[in-house]
Amino acid sequence: MSGFISSFAPTTSFFQQDQNWFTAQANSSAESSAITTALFSTPSSNANSNSNTVGSSSVTSAESSLLGAFGTTLMNASTGAAVIAAQEASARVNKQTAALNSSQPTKSAANVASQVTFTGAYSADFGATGASSTGGFEFLTGSALQQAFKAAVAGKTSNGAAIDTVTMSGNILFASTSGVNAHPVFALQLQPNSGTYTFTLLNPIDQKVSRLDESTTLNLSGLVQAVKDDGTTTALTDSAVIKIHNGTGQAVATTDPASGVQTGGNIFEGGLAYTGPNNPTPTTTTKTPAKPTPYTVPTNPLTGRGYSAAPGAAAATFGATNILTLA
Q1: Which of 319, 294, 298, 320 is nearest to 308 (CA)?
Q2: Helix, strand, or coil here: 258?
Q3: What percent of the chain has pLDDT over 70?
Q4: Which helix (H) or strand (E) holds 321?
Q5: How crowded is residue 177: how many other Cβ atoms within 10 Å of its Cβ?
């Protein structure tokens, strides 16, 4: 009977069986961790020294990695492409936002010339003397032109820069900005004999951003003077007043309703793109020199009093006697 019972009794205690089971689970977890590390590890420059042990076999990450050298390169390239795509998308959004805020197109309209070009005529009364035989109209010159130009464009900017430069090329006046983003803004061409002028806007003039009709005015009458046959000159007023609208439309003349005389024209810059440079504006830092620290007479640690600042103190003298030589 005892032999029958002993044949069914386990040779290993239940406690030992539990310990064996826990040990097997621990070994299984370690092996799974090693396999996972081997699958997703990155290649090493020294494959022989970078290995993971699975059971009794040695697994080299460079050889057995799920990604491998090619897979790692491909993943890095994919990540880089995603970053570049995100940067390009951000740049497009910023560009579109800037265009919306400025209300200016990035490319000029096909018929922009008819919107930003106006032809009119200066008018003058030459009296009995008549106009000069060499031409009854001429641009001012020298300091007179500079002053008249400054008055005509006062407060006007283009792409954030003041319109502050005037140059002449024959009978064509050019107005421009200066600085790192210098660019031409408009041209005014004059026919001396007839007084006919052609105004052409080359780059937009800054205006208030609005969906409504906004405009700014350039009175260019003072840039030209009438010349009589005897050489005398006459200033012109309200002969070339150009009103620049922020929308689109065909350039049209402005006529005084009372006299019927043409006084200028209306042009539209809504279809005109900015074509000048966009260099970053340099920042200037002005350093203020540090103020010198005023001299403070040192204090004698024994007496608590300050040393003498008298001229003779440096020579250790009092009156005519050198105090260092006293017996």
Answers
A1: 298
A2: coil
A3: 67
A4: strand 321-322
A5: 22
- Please, are residues 285 and 278 in contact by the beta-carbon 8 Å criterion? no
Q: Which two tokens stand for residue 320?
A: 């005519």
Rounded to whole angstroms, how far apart are CA atoms 123 and 9?
Answer: 129
pLDDT at site 63? 46
Short-list 247, 17, 258, 219, CA closest to 120? 219
Which H or E run includes 112?
A: none
Report the C-alpha gap between 293 and 249 in whole angstroms: 68
Alpha carbon distance 144, 147 (integer Å): 5
**How many CB atoms neighbour CB 299 within 10 A?**
11
Count CB atoms within 10 A of the CB of residue 51.
20
pLDDT in tens, 122-155: 999 999 999 999 999 999 999 999 999 999 999 9
For range 96-108, the mean pLDDT: 65
Residue 181 to residue 24: CA distance in whole angstroms:
76
Binning pLDDT at 50, 70 and 90, where does residue 70 land? low
Which pLDDT band, with edges at 50, 70 and 90, does 5 fall under? very low
Provide the token pair at 326.
């006293």
Contact between residue 254 and residue 263 where contact means Cβ atoms under 8 Å apart: yes
Number of residues in the chain = 327
Secondary structure percentages of the chain, helix, strand, coil, to 5? 30, 25, 45
Domain ranges of the chain: 2-66, 113-268
The residue written with tokens 């026919």 in the block is 191
